[in-house]
Amino acid sequence: MKKLMVISLLLFMAMNRNVFGQWTSGNGNTTTNDKVGIGTSSPLNILHLRNTNNSVFLRIEKQLGYEGGLVWTDPIGASLFYFYSDNADNDALKIQTSGLSGEDDANPRIMIPRTNKNIYLAKSGGNVGIGTSSPGSKLHIINGNGIVRAPQLGIGRFQDVESLPLFEFQTADADPDFGEDALFVHGYRWGASVWFTRGSSGGDRAYARIGSPGTAGWFQLFDASALTGGNVNVHLSASGTSYLNGGNVLIGKTSQASTAYKLDVAGKMRADEIVVNTSGAYPDFVFHEDYKLKPLHELEKEIQSLKHLPGIPTAKEATENGIPLGEMQVKLLQKIEELTLYVIELEKEVKALKSNKE
Fold first, then answer.
1. Element holding 269 (H helix, E strand)
2. Residue 108: is the preceding peptide bond cis (ω within 30°)?
3. Among 23, 171, 190, 351, which is least packed by CB within 10 angstroms?
4. pLDDT tens digits for 233-262?
């Protein structure tokens, strides 16, 4: 009977080893080397808390006027990581690691206060990644597949690097350099530019750009093939050449009687000098020896019949169609040269009459 009681006691102690077997007391401490379970009889870790009534898992209450928190240390007792709250910041949550240069209670790695203070992540060497495990900037966000699919809306890129600081906003998962319906704001150290783009993979692309690194301020509008070596439709520069490549320009009006005119102005223009290119024969041919100058009496008959000089537009034509400046200057010059020949002939006749009279 005594042997049976001893065996039963040993079995009971073995079955309850997690509860009774390894607890020791001394110097005000109670310790164990086994796992401790609260809410569970089968703890899986050193301390295993199991919620059985939908309440708070763990409550740590600090005494008024004292700091409170949790600390993780290495085997020699140095604090590797801890977070806590204190009265100075009105129960702010601070997370920090010890032993780092410049980091102490007043300068934690992460601080989330309850009062009107900043939420910040300290230390200059680290980056924050959302949707990426290898962030390349202070804040690097990758949308991935996302919850919102079509269209996807998000910030594509925000950099703060001396050589290439920029802000990029795009509305689709597209090429980060030329996104769809995207806005790029480049703040280069030596210049600045703003790009508005629209494009699709394998399709037509076009975009507007204001400014460019290393160039005095200008504005550009590109055509559909601009990104693959096409032409710039509009280029307005603060210095250098400005141009419109293609299409017509209307000033003071919204429509044209004829689309043949690249510049159509409803109103007056003023300039110090205008140069008009000419095409076709220039009227120097009037002074060639084989040029047949029309006799004055024939010219008189044509004027009486036409009511204007031969070869010159009528008043009605000029009113309806305008006057081609270059062409008109050539015709007027021809009339002046012919008039000069008439004057020379008249002078010869006058001299001959005077000579005969004498």
1. none
2. no
3. 190
4. 777 777 777 777 778 899 999 999 889 989
